Amino acid sequence: MPLFSIITINRNNARGLLKTIGSVVEQSCTDFEYIVIDGASTDNSPDIIKGAENKIKYWVSEMDNGIYDAMNKGISKAKGKYLLFLNSGDCLVNNNVLKKVAGSNPAAQLISGNILFKEANGNIRQDTTPQKLTKFYLLRSMLYHPVTFVDAELFKSLGYYDAQYKIVADYEFFLRCLSARSISYTHLNFDITFFDNSGVSAVPETRKLLIAERLNVQKKYFNPFIVMMYRIYLFAQTVTKNKK
Question: Which residue range forms the structural domain that includes residue 49?
């Protein structure tokens, strides 16, 4: 069993896919398998995958029912102890990331590190995941899946991503984990992934859907009064910010 299964999903993003594949296959750590799930791309994505297939454990190019259906296909093929979802365009920050994670002697069921974003002005912004993960942390924030290694046993015991959600199924899965049992969690205080800001959850056009899905998930896992008070707090914060 490899220590890591890195899963990349892609749909007509050949340029991003090329960067992602390069950041994975050039890792100094060899204790991993690489899985690529392509959604029947009509650009040259399949050719890029074929060009690296000697370093890819499994790949397929076929129609799917969205992001999380594709991720679930990857989960079903994964043999590693930990799964990391690195979608096309996302890149591991350097060639030693997996070696550094492996060197931390991972034992927790969820292991999360820091993420990097490139802002519109060209600056690089770092965001960290929490030292302690709780449900209430997830009420106001999120755990970034491109920097979170998930014990494969969690998917086996709690189920795969709920593909009814188009954008926030990973958010729902993490809340499912914390609601079902006591989950062990470790924060690694170093950068794991450079996040692609052009992904579906990051573009303004999908902002309304993201907010609606996130609210539906919150109603599922939190007391309705808590959710209502948190939404009022967010509204008040927005009003105050707009007045400045």
Answer: 4-198
